[in-house]
């Protein structure tokens, strides 16, 4: 696949990291705008019930998406390491396997979730006044879940080979389309949450079509013909070995956020759900640059570990972490100084803004921990240490954050102030786990090759 590869194992580490990270960073910023657009436009034209519908329905969809992102991470690590070790045969086999797997999973999830969506919405305490809008949003996004799965698979393949530019172009086209369709469906046709969901599905489908056209016309080893879709068991086992812990991790984190959403609904109803949802959308935008750097570190580390160049992988991690700290801390200052103007972007409902500010007052301290957690976990994933990142995430999101959310928010009756406080406390616990893992030295072992990487 010479036409699509970007060799990250040679040349200046800083230059390679920047060249790969900038399109990835822009891609994630655009993806954030893509996700925020629904909330902004629905909030402006439809009110808090529809905002709550988009927020709650989006949380459920996010769980399903994060399952796929976990499996794709397994494929990305394999593709990156095979690229670094110049293993063309394995590249072909893993590509066919991940594409076939996710198309099948997408169809299965759609069928199952269509029947389970209403029981799930009742289970998470969806406010009655927002139930119809939430159900509308979730139903439509479920119909297009196969496009979300397909795009994640295709973009992970491209990024694994070092190409972060084209995924950015495709998601930019999808974002512009989503905003235009949001304005048409929500502001003009007045379809509220249903219109926002339809705009999202159409935009995701467009990104898949553009990606397939590009890859089919490039020097790419997969031709997208029906006979080429097949599963190679050796690669499937490796995808699950590396990707399943990340898959479980993402699912656990998403479920924990769903629990937090349920607790928010219990504590404050529609206004709280809309306010916290708006703040979470902004937070996703603020964290996206750091997430992009983390993924860039992961890809660069994987290629260099595959090429037995651990020193370059470590240097990429250090440089990326410095950049992530700078960006995330700038956002921390922003949310501490301008919380009301930020929330006002999502609507002028005073109860919604007050709820968002109350939550943000304590949650914002999580910004101080996030860059270290994301970047170091990205480095560990590059070496295939997804089991550790799973355990670290379980500690943070399940063992610490979930019980603290209920304890501080409900039992101690601190409301949204307590719910927000649970996040930085949980992240501090994750930092301690990461430091302990670094001290063991086990991170130097390459899980994919199943042998120790030469010590530097």
Task: Tell me what the structure shows.
- It is a single chain.
- The protein is mostly helical and 456 residues long.
- It has one domain (13-452).
- It contains 14 helices and two strands; from the N terminus they run H-H-H-H-H-H-H-H-H-H-H-H-H-H-E-E.
- The chain has helices spanning 13-45, 48-84, 88-123, 128-143, 145-160, 165-188, 192-217, 233-306, 310-337, 339-344, 350-363, 370-382, 386-411, 415-440; strands spanning 445-446, 451-452.
- A two-stranded antiparallel ribbon has the order 1-2.
- The longest helix has 74 residues, at 233-306.
- It starts with 12 loop residues before the first helix and ends with a strand.
- 57% of the residues are buried.
- Residues 450-456 have low confidence and may be disordered.
